[in-house]
Design a protein that fits this description.
The complex is a heterodimer of chains A (439) and B (315). Chain A is 48% helix and 13% strand. With 439 residues, chain A is of the alpha/beta class. Chain A has a five-stranded mixed sheet, with helices on both faces. In chain A, strands 6-7-8-5-9 form a five-stranded mixed sheet. In chain A, α10 packs across α11. Classes of the chains: A alpha/beta (439), B mainly alpha (315).
Amino acid sequence: MTYSKLASASAIVLAATTLSTKANAEDLTLCWAAWDPANALVELSKEFEAESGHTMNFEFVPWPNFADRMLNELNSGGKLCDLLIGDSQWIGGGAENGHYVQLNEFFDAESISMDDFAPATVYAYSTWPKGTPNYYALPAMGDANGWFYRKDWFEDPEIQAAYKEATGQDLREPESQKELLQIAQFFQGREIEGKTVYGAAIFTERGSEGITMGVTGALYPWGFKYENTPGSYDMEGAVNSPEAVEALEFYKEFYKTATPPGYTNSYMGESLDAFKSGQVAMAMNWFAFFPGLYADPSTGGDKIDFFVNPPQNQAGSTLGGQGISVVSYSDKQDAALEYIKWFAQPAVQAKWWELGGYSAHNSVLQDPGFVDSAPFAGDFLLAMNDVQDFWQEPAYAELLLAMQKRIHDYVVADQGTAQEALDLLIEDWTETFEDEGKL
Amino acid sequence: MSDRTVDRVAKATPVRVARKIRGLSDRAIAWIFISPTIFLLLAINIFPLIWTIQLSFTNFKANRIGREVKDVGFRNYERILTDSDTWLNMQATAHFLFWTIFFQVLIGFTLAWLLNKKFKGNDLWTTIIVLPMMLSPAVVGNFWKFLYQPQIGLFNYIVSWFSGKDPSSFEMLGSVQLAPWAIVIVDTWMWTPFVMLICLAGLRSIPDYIYEAAEVDRASKLRQFFTITIPMVLPFLMLAVLFRGIENFKMFDLVVQLTGGGPGSTTELTSINLKREAFEKWRTGYASAYAIILFVTVFGLASIYVKALNKVKQR
C-alpha cells in the first residue's frame, strides 16, 4: 500500500514536471532574411533563451529567395515559423489572409505601447489597414535605402581639383539627386590608384524587387505618389505625373552614364561587391548593411562615409525594414508572444542597436547620444523622417512584379519612353485592383 | 517439362478459384493488369489537367483560399491572347527554340560524323565532348554568367582578342540584342553532345556493306553522304530534335540563372512567365489558362512532328 502510494505520487510528480517543462520551454523558430542583422539577432536572442528557458532556432533565407520561400510557407499554412520578420509590404496579405496574429489584445495586456516606437515604422511595419490602430507586427528593424561613398577619394586634393575644374563646384556629399548624378558621372571611367573606377552602384535587379527599390529612390524625391487621394486607387496623374516621368528618365540616365559595365541585374550583393572591390565611388544600399561596411578592413573605417538619399523637389527615401509577427499557424504562439514582449523592452532595444540591428524604439532613437553612436546614425534618423513605402496591399506581389517589368523594360532594355512605361504600369495596376474588387 | 509444370499449377489451383479465373475473359484480365496504371495516370495526369481546365475559367488565386471564386468565362484566355507581352514571350521562346535546335543539329551531327571516323583518342574525345551535358543547369548558368562578365569574363576577352574590341564594350547578358544569343550559345554548348550521341548511334547503325556497294557503283563520297548517310541518320536526328524541342520549350533553370528573363523581358521565355504568374503573382486561374494554351500549342506541334517522323521511318 505504501509502495503503491509512493509510486502514484512519483508518477504524478513526474507527469506534472514533464507537462510544466513542455508548457514552459519551447523550441521556437524565427524566420528572416539571411543578412548581417540576422546574425546580430542570433546573438541578441541568447539572452532571451537564458531568461525564458525557450530554445531559439533560426531559418534565414537569402534575400533573392526570401519572399518566394516565406510567402509559400504562409500560403500553405506551414508551421515552420513561429515568428516571422516579414517585409513591410507583406503586412496587408498577412493580415487579410489570416497569416499573422493580430497583436492589439496582447499589446494592451502587456502594456506595450506603439507610441514608444517611431511613427513611420509603426505605420509601415505594423498597421493594416494602413494607419488604423490594428497591429499585426512589432517594429523590429528600421531601414531605408541610403548611400555610402569613398571618403578617401572625395578628400583626395587631386581628385577635388579635377572635379572643381570639370564642374566648377566643390566635391562634397551631394545635396540633390542631380548633384549625385554629376558626381557619379565625374568618377565614371576615371583612373584612380592605377585602376579604372566607375560612378555608382545602383539597383537594377529584375527578378525580385531590386529595380523598384532603386528607382523609387529617385521617384520619391521628385514627388512621386501612388494615388491622387490615399485609399482611392486613383493613379492617373499621380503615378505618371510629369515629375515621375522626369525621375524615371533621370534613373535611366544614371544607369546608362554612371554605373559599371554589365550592371544590368544588380541588387544588394552586387552593390556591396562593387564597393568593396574598389570599383565604384558611391553605392546605394540599405542602412542595415552600413555597420558591416564601416567595419570592413579594406574599404571601411576612414575610407567610407554615408549620406541620406539626396532630395530633389522634396526629401524622400525608400523604406526598407520589417516588423516581427507571430504566425497564426504556429502551435507555440504563447512562447512566440513572450519573445515579442521581451524584444519590446527598451534595454533589449538598446542592445539590439549596439549589436548592429536598427531599433525603431524611441528610447533608442531619441537618446541624446544616438546621432554620435555611429557615423551613419544621424543619416538613418533623417531618412526615417521622409520614408515612403511601396503598396502594402494583399496583392503586393502582383503590383511589384508589374513595376519590375515596366521599369526594367524601360531603363535597362531601352523599350519605349518613360511616359509609356508609367502609363503601362497604371494599366497593370488597374487590372490588379479590378481583380481585387477595389476598383 | 513446362507442360508438366503448367499441369501441376492447374491441379494445385483450388477448384473455386480456377472456376472464377476461367470465368474471366481475356479482356477482363487485361483490364485487371492495366487498371493500376490507368488509375495512376488518371490521378497524376488526367485529373490535374481537367482541374486546370476548370480553374482556367475562374479568378481563383491559390494564396487567397478564403476569397470567393468567380466564373470569368473566357476572360483569362482573351486577356492572354490579346496581351502583346504574351506574344513577345512567344517570340523569345521561338527564337530560342529554333536557333538552339539549328546549332545543336548542325554541330552535333558534324561532331558525330567526325567521331565516327576511326582515329587515335576517339573514345577520349567522345568523353570530353559529352562532359557539359553531365553538369547541372544551375552550375552551367552560374559559370557562364562569369564567363560573360564584361570586365573579367573570359568570353568577352576571347571575342576582343579576335575582334580588337574592348572586352567591356559589350554586354552579352545586359544587351537587348545580344542576350537572346547568349542563352542560345550556352544551351548549344550544354546540349550539343546529346544530339551528337544520338547521331553517332545512327551513324554506327549503318552497315558498312552499303557503303562498299556504293563504292563498287563508283558513287562519290558526296553522293554517298546525301543518299546513304543522311537518309539513314534522319530518323535518329528527328528524334533528337523532338527531345530537344520539348526540353527547350519548357526551358527554365538555365535561363533564369543567366538572365532572369532580362534585360527587360527580352529573354523571358513562356515557362518563366508562367512560373511568375502562377507562383509569384499567384494568379492561378490566369496561369491555368496560360498553361492550357501552351499545352495545346506543344501538343499540336508535337503531333504534326511525330506524324512526319513516322513517315520518315516508313520510307
